[in-house]
């Protein structure tokens, strides 16, 4: 016999999948759900925990359970895709706002990341907006040995497009590290992350075809909006 909380979970998940509740609206309270299903709050709590674990809701302290958008954007972990390309491929309405664009002072840790003390490094911070929500914070750093400091207009459009089409460079591969971290004050100020206690961070070292290291990037994503995907093959 199916446990009561699993049956409640199945029914609530089905309603969310069918969009009977609008994404980012609040579920009924624990007391209301307990009355609705004629059960205890403890049973309801178990069902809500399952919903949270499977990405259907986000529990917000003092407010209740917020329904998440189950239609997440697939972000290819193993590929090197610009934000402009991602938005175009997924047919999403997008916007980029350049927060800053500047040379980085000597002594900054990014000089160690890029293993470069001979050339100046410049960086730009950009907020990525998808479907009207600010959900990605990109912090990119480039060495002037390969990429001169670019204009705000180019940074707003596509840096990779300029590098490949105007500078004639061929981007080869990247080494990536994915972590889950607490949002910084900068994240909270620039992104729409109220109610979220984590940020997914992808740190990448990006190389040209000849293995020259030219970019370090830190891309900070709101966790409910992305599904990070990869293709793996077993090699014996």
UniProtKB/TrEMBL annotation:
Where is the signal peptide, in residue numbers? Answer: none
Show the Pfam families listed in the entry: GntR, UTRA
Which ranges form a coiled coil? none
Instruction: Domain (HTH gntR-type): give its ranges.
Output: 2-70
Q: Does the keyword rRNA processing apply?
A: no
Among Gene3D superfamilies, the record links this protein to: Chorismate lyase-like, Winged helix-like DNA-binding domain superfamily/Winged helix DNA-binding domain
Q: Where on the tree of life does the source sit, at the highest rank? A: Bacteria
Q: Which SUPFAM superfamilies match?
A: Chorismate lyase-like, Winged helix' DNA-binding domain
Q: Which UniProt keywords apply?
A: DNA-binding, Transcription, Transcription regulation
NCBIfam families with a match to the protein in the record: trehalos_R_Bsub
UniProt-recorded name of the protein: Trehalose operon repressor
